[in-house]
Structure formats: structure tokens, C-alpha cells
Specification:
elongated; mainly alpha; about 110 residues; single chain; about 75% helix
């Protein structure tokens, strides 16, 4: 009974984790800090994950098949980790204000 409760709790946790990760990948997509293809892969990967957990909760006999929905998320996590280690994030170059503009704005 405790193992069943643990499994259900784990699936519920993964469900909410994947919802948060969808939002995170959406922000990465909009900000263009990483390539949009990579952020799009994250969105698609983590949309599949809650579907797999719902199937696992409602149809426990297909739990092993439903776990296949987690595979794209695992691939995304490895790829984004390697990308960030090798390339970092894309930042726009900082614009430097002319010294006169800084003095004018400080005097106002």
C-alpha cells in the first residue's frame, strides 16, 4: 500500500514539475537566450510528460508505456545542460550612455 502511495505521489510531483518547466521553456523561447529550436524542444517534451503521468495515474496497467513520454524531457535536459556549459546564454550587448547624457540626467 505504501509503495502504491509513493508511486502516485511521484506521478503527481512530476505532473506539477512539468507544468512549471513548460512555463520556463516558454520564457526561454520568448527571451531567445538559447536557440528557439532548443526551447521549442523543451516545450514539446514537457507537454508530453503530464500526459504520460495522467495516463499512468488513470491507467496503471500502462504505466511502463506511459513512462516513454518522459524520454524527450530527459533528452532535452541533457542537451540544454551541454548547450549552456559550452555556449552560455545569448545576451544583447550593453549600450553605454555618453557621459554628457549621464550628467544631464543627474542634474534634472
Amino acid at each position: 500500500m505504501l509503495l502504491t502511495a509513493r508511486t502516485i505521489g511521484y506521478d503527481v510531483t512530476i505532473f506539477f514539475l512539468s507544468l512549471g518547466t513548460i512555463v520556463y521553456c516558454g520564457l526561454l523561447y520568448r527571451s531567445r537566450y538559447v536557440p528557439r529550436v532548443l526551447a521549442g524542444l523543451g516545450i514539446v517534451s514537457f507537454v508530453l510528460m503530464p500526459v504520460g503521468t495522467v495516463v499512468s495515474l488513470l491507467l496503471p496497467q500502462y504505466k511502463d508505456l506511459a513512462m516513454a513520454a518522459w524520454a524527450p524531457g530527459i533528452v532535452f535536459e541533457v542537451v540544454i545542460g551541454v548547450w549552456l556549459l559550452l555556449n552560455g546564454v545569448r545576451l544583447a550587448p550593453a549600450t553605454v550612455a555618453a557621459p554628457e547624457a549621464v550628467i544631464d540626467s543627474a542634474s534634472r
